[in-house]
TrEMBL record:
It comes from the Bacteria. GO terms for molecular function: phosphorelay response regulator activity; phosphorelay sensor kinase activity; protein kinase activator activity. Its EC number is 2.7.13.3. Residues 192-418 form the Histidine kinase domain. GO terms for cellular component: membrane. It comes from Candidatus Opimibacter skivensis. This is histidine kinase.
Length: 418
């Protein structure tokens, strides 16, 4: 006959059994929640390891750490499951979300759209944009729905927060609106420059011309000098207006791109500057250049300005020598942080052996009206390189300048090749 337990021993045994029961209940809940995939049991003073072979364990871990909302909805739209991302997006506790209708969190203006998406999502993959609403806060989201039948009577939803994307779109729209306004201002300026400014200037030039032809002998030497200064100033003003018109037209002109051989453009510019090239005994070196999808007349302006500068800012100690090269390669091949990664560029370099300038002016020379030299030293309006930069930007490209004083300058142009 077995010995009976005393009341005290029986009470201790009950406490021990209750402790094991609590432990097993916690283990079962952990298994259900996917927190463990193995557990140990001690029987007859020996430990045994039992593995939980759950196919969806890794999947649950992945979904819980997803950077987007993941939900399962019943056919009635109740939230059966959600990862932690979705409640955090709503700024609500987890228990306030699970078990509720998904419609509770949808903006009234988006409910009809969601009904249609959900209806389609019961039988096929579908996606669209809706707005969530919580505590008077609207959250734009992109949702992808997929039926989970027949495995589970539910619909799976992936939710992507579009708040930041919408903000960027608004900023882009504002920038585009500003750009339209600036273009309209440029067009208005071009009209004023071509009509209101050039009209009076032409009259001034006519009267100066008449004075030079008919009254020049009646003027003193000082008077003749003053007249020449006025004549030079009027000519400079006309050049300035024409350059400003050219600068404004680079933004407002219709952009017609065409596959163009750069060799032909360079040959045209050389022909235009033939007399000056001969007068200054300039030598010209151009390797076989590439064909690019560009705006031909604008690229001709680029070459006209850069080659023209090489002939203007010459080193008195030697005749000008101009070198033009081009190569096509991935952006990673060029040491320029402004280039887009994973993109091919055509690199065009225009080099000369002129007077050059200090490296501190590498960026400033592209500013409108910026001049390194006085009008008395070198003619010009200080707009030419600003026009060049604007044209390069019209082609989604980048231009830089590298120069050494008394050694020469190289302009590097990068234009997308694809």
């Amino acid at each position: 006959m077995k010995n009976k337990l005393s009341a005290e021993e029986a009470e201790l045994k009950i406490i021990e059994l209750q402790s094991h029961l609590d432990e097993y209940e916690q283990l079962i809940e952990a298994i259900k929640g996917g927190e463990v995939d193995a557990f140990a049991l001690k029987t007859n003073n020996e430990s045994a390891i039992f593995s939980i072979q759950t196919v969806d364990y890794a999947y649950r871990i992945l979904v819980e750490n997803f950077g987007e909302g993941a939900l399962n909805l019943s056919e009635e739209g109740l939230i059966l499951y959600t990862n932690h991302y979705f409640p955090e997006l709503l700024n609500l506790p987890y228990e306030s979300v699970v078990g509720n209708s998904f419609l509770l969190f949808i903006h009234p203006d988006s409910k009809e759209t969601f009904h249609e998406l959900f209806k389609n999502g019961l039988t096929a993959n579908t996606k669209g944009e809706i707005n969530l609403l919580i505590a008077d806060k609207t959250i734009p989201v992109y949702i992808s729905l997929a039926p989970l039948f027949p495995a589970v009577s539910a619909v799976g939803i992936i939710i992507t927060d579009l708040t930041e994307k919408k903000k960027q779109e608004e900023i882009l729209q504002m920038k585009n609106a500003e750009l339209v306004t600036k273009n309209n201002e440029l067009q208005a300026f071009a009209y004023i420059a071509s009509h209101d400014l050039q009209g009076p200037l032409r009259k001034i030039q006519i009267f100066i011309s008449r004075l030079s032809e008919k009254e020049i002998n009646n003027l003193s030497e000082n008077g003749k000098e003053y007249l020449k200064m006025v004549q030079d100033s009027a000519k400079l003003m006309q050049e300035l207006i024409q350059d400003l018109l050219a600068y404004s037209s680079t933004s407002t002109a219709e952009r017609k791109f065409d596959n163009t051989d750069l060799n032909k453009i360079v040959d045209q510019v050389k022909d235009d500057l033939k007399e000056e090239l001969n007068d200054k005994h300039a030598s010209f070196e151009a390797t076989e250049l590439h064909t690019l999808n560009i705006i031909p007349f604008q690229f001709r302006q680029i070459m006209q300005n850069l080659i023209g500068n090489a002939l203007k800012f010459i080193n008195p100690a030697q005749p000008p020598h101009i070198i033009i090269k081009s190569e096509i390669a991935d952006s990673s091949a060029f040491n320029n942080v402004k280039l887009s990664p994973q993109k091919k560029y055509c690199h065009i370099s225009v080099s000369d052996n002129g007077i050059g300038f200090e490296p501190e002016f590498n960026e400033k020379i592209f500013e409108v009206f910026y001049r390194l030299h006085a009008h008395t030293e070198y003619k010009g309006t200080g707009i030419g390189l600003a026009i060049v930069k604007k044209i390069v930007e019209n082609h989604d490209g980048v231009i830089t300048a590298n120069s050494v004083l008394n050694k020469g300058t190289t302009f590097d142009i990068y234009i997308p090749a694809t």
